[in-house]
């Protein structure tokens, strides 16, 4: 890759500045500086880069498409919510050099095992940072600087002893393998070594039988344990000799504990493991609110990046607010506000590219222009596979005649896009054509819960007189015909819905209306959601794009709980935690007692759940490894970390406990504290592990977190690989815990 390349950084059609971009010698960092001033403007790590897009594949580069050919343009996309970097190279060759080079650097990523053992590049990165005079060696003063950078406040005598032990050449400096020796001594895991020696007779290795004992007694692996032990040795033992003898060294044992198999998250649940042949209403569905916004609700920026980020995150229900634009071209934005606008055709084009990079159908809302995603994808092929095309004759008539007693399944709807919207007439009219009766143009106009829809002036109206005629003129028949399984209907109570609504229909409720129903009619709400879809959306007062807690909505089985994906925080951590399972497909099967239309379950009364009694979750928080510094902290500052465990679920299960804080040690803090929780409805529980920097004078600072559903927990000695506030990984930061679950 070329270094010191002059390229244009583009922010808008009128903002195009020349900058020098350079890949640092560590092959991990890229900085760029102003051509005019020569000052370094910014820098970013290769580990922050998610992907590189070629050509005019961003809104910004599309605005300069006439000025710069696609061969010279590319976009660097970062993890999380950080904005993209749009660049124009001096030539197509230069652009390709950067695109291919960046892709090679980011491609070999995999699940973080133990960076201290498997990533020499990462170790070299620290070396480069600490080697202030860039002579390829580190004296003791530079080592002390390194320890501060790595969040370690180590006794100077102890640090000097480690330094001298590693300095085999006795030159007073560390270089090459000497630095690796120093780093290994620094990262020695005494708590893991102690556990290893408990099961190792000679304290140097685990035989196959000793490893089997550990897996059965501690990790509670009860099926195919010998085969699993062999697989772990073959996969994680670094010594060829040890592998040949079927034994596991201490290094191999640590690598296993830091691997996917040693994670707190059950690796079998990362794949698609649930039944996908249940009716759509039997699943929680990952859903976003005002997907096009990447900032606030009033003046925020609308962008196709909102759709791309949500889809890559596994979101399956997107929102498209479509309004008339110039020359009759529909535009997407937040109506009656000052948010920016994007052409509807760009949204549709984006959905065509990204909708099915994550599995399964995408319920959504939309309008004119959908034909560009493909007629088969959008509409006619959404009918059940055993049913003929509705434009023809045959079994479809029987399905309609039976009242469409069940909605289709995610499996039946794979690679299809469903439109949630208003519809002229009933489902049968799509087949037979409108008759002499007045069409049923339904809407969500039912008091407070329809405030959002009225404000946006979405098409629809009442059932009476001239208003109906106006609605017939407003709502295009072609768009109406595209609405099949997600027809908007007003919510007028559970009894009314049971008597007059159908599984193919859906109601939208504000968070406030939903809370009132949860409080007053919790069991009826659960029963309703066992046969029909319900969408929940944020209050119109959340102009800052804040989020409500999705947990209370999931507790009554609401499927489409729409959140502002652009806003980081506990609410999105819960969303990511729930949907990180099942192949990240965006669908999670509800527990059996929430799929039964006659269920007695009410989240306010855990005893109403059929099944075994409460379980006890015991968590021993043992240690932490290489925790990151707090963003924007002072140079030389070292964190005082504590761990808080939070339980989210039915009201009786809501709880949190925390450890004491460890002073001045973010590198290898050791807590060894036990926290215990009683959980009444584990099927709905989410567990959130949070690391904070303790501050006795102000609010603690966030360091990292990890959230998962209780159903995905693997008991035993496990590592928890922490995520940033944006939900991106921050290797090699982790917690080491011991988990026990008892009834």
TrEMBL record:
Residues 118-153, 154-189 form the EF-hand domain. It comes from the Eukaryota. It is found in: Cytoplasm; Endoplasmic reticulum; Membrane; Nucleus. Residues 479-595 form the PI-PLC Y-box domain. Residues 595-724 form the C2 domain. Its EC number is 3.1.4.11. Its cofactor is Ca(2+). This is Phosphoinositide phospholipase C. It comes from Sylvietta virens (Green crombec). The lineage of its organism: Eukaryota, Metazoa, Chordata, Craniata, Vertebrata. The gene is Plcd4.
């Amino acid at each position: 890759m070329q270094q010191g390349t002059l390229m244009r950084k583009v922010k808008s059609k009128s903002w195009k500045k020349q900058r020098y971009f350079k890949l640092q010698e560590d092959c991990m960092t890229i900085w760029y500086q102003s051509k005019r001033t020569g000052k370094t403007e910014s820098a970013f790590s290769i580990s922050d880069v998610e992907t590189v897009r070629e050509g005019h594949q961003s809104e910004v580069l599309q605005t300069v498409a006439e000025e710069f050919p696609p061969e010279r343009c590319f976009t660097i996309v970062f993890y999380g919510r950080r904005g993209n970097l749009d660049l124009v190279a001096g030539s197509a060759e230069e652009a390709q050099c950067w695109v291919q080079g960046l892709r090679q650097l980011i491609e070999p990523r995999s699940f973080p095992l133990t960076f201290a053992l498997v990533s020499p590049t990462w170790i070299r990165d620290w070396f480069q940072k600490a080697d202030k005079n860039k002579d390829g060696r580190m004296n003791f003063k530079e080592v002390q600087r390194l320890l501060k950078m790595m969040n370690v406040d180590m006794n100077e005598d102890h640090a000097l002893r480690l330094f001298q032990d590693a300095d085999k050449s006795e030159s007073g400096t560390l270089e090459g393998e000497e630095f690796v020796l120093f780093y290994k001594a620094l990262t020695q895991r005494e708590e893991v070594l102690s556990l290893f020696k408990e099961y190792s007779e000679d304290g140097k290795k685990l035989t196959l039988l000793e490893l089997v004992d550990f897996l059965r007694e501690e990790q509670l692996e009860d099926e195919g344990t010998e085969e699993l032990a062999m697989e772990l040795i073959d996969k994680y033992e670094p010594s060829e000799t040890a592998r040949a003898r079927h034994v596991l060294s201490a290094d191999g044992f640590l690598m296993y504990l830091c691997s996917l198999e040693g994670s707190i998250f059950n690796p079998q649940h990362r794949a698609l493991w649930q039944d996908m042949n249940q009716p759509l209403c039997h699943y929680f569905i990952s859903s976003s609110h005002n997907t096009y916004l990447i900032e606030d609700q009033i003046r925020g920026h609308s962008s196709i990046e909102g759709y791309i980020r949500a889809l890559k995150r596994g979101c399956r229900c997107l929102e498209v607010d479509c309004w008339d634009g110039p020359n009759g071209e529909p535009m997407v934005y937040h109506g009656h506000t000052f948010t920016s606008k994007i052409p509807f055709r760009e949204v549709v084009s984006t959905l065509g590219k990204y909708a099915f990079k994550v599995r399964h159908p995408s319920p959504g809302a939309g309008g004119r222009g959908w034909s560009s995603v493909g007629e088969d994808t959008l509409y006619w092929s959404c009918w059940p596979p055993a049913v003929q095309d509705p434009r023809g004759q045959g079994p479809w008539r029987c399905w309609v005649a039976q009242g469409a007693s069940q909605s289709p399944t995610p499996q039946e709807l794979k690679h299809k896009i469903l439109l949630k919207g208003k519809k002229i007439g009933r489902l049968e009219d799509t087949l037979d054509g409108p008759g002499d009766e007045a069409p049923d143009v339904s809407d969500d106009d039912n008091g407070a819960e329809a405030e959002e829809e009225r404000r946006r002036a979405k098409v629809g109206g009442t059932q009476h007189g001239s208003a109906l005629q106006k609605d017939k003129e407003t709502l295009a028949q072609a768009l109406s015909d595209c609405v099949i399984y997600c027809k908007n209907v007003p919510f007028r109570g559970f009894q009314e819905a049971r008597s007059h609504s159908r599984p193919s229909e859906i109601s939208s409720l504000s968070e406030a209306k939903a809370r009132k129903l949860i409080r007053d009619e919790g069991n009826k709400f659960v029963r309703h959601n066992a046969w029909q879809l319900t969408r929940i959306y944020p209050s119109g007062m959340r102009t800052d794009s804040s989020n409500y807690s999705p947990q209370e909505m999931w507790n009554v089985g609401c499927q489409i709980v729409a959140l502002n994906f652009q806003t980081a925080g506990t609410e999105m951590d819960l969303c990511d935690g729930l949907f990180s399972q099942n192949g990240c497909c965006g669908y999670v099967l509800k527990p059996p007692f929430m799929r039964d239309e006659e269920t007695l379950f009410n989240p306010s009364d855990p005893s109403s759940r059929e099944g075994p009694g409460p379980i006890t979750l015991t968590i021993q928080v043992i240690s932490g490894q290489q925790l990151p510094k707090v963003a924007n902290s002072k140079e030389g500052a070292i964190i005082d970390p504590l761990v808080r465990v939070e339980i989210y679920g039915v009201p009786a299960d809501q709880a949190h406990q925390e450890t004491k804080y460890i002073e001045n040690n973010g590198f290898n803090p050791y807590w060894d504290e036990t926290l215990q929780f009683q959980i009444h409805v584990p099927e709905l529980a989410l567990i959130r592990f949070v690391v904070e920097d303790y501050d006795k004078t102000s609010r603690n600072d966030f360091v990292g977190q990890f959230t998962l559903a209780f159903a995905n927990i693997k008991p035993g000695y496990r590592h928890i690989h922490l995520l940033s506030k944006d939900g991106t990984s921050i290797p090699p930061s982790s917690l080491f815990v011991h988990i026990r679950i008892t009834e």
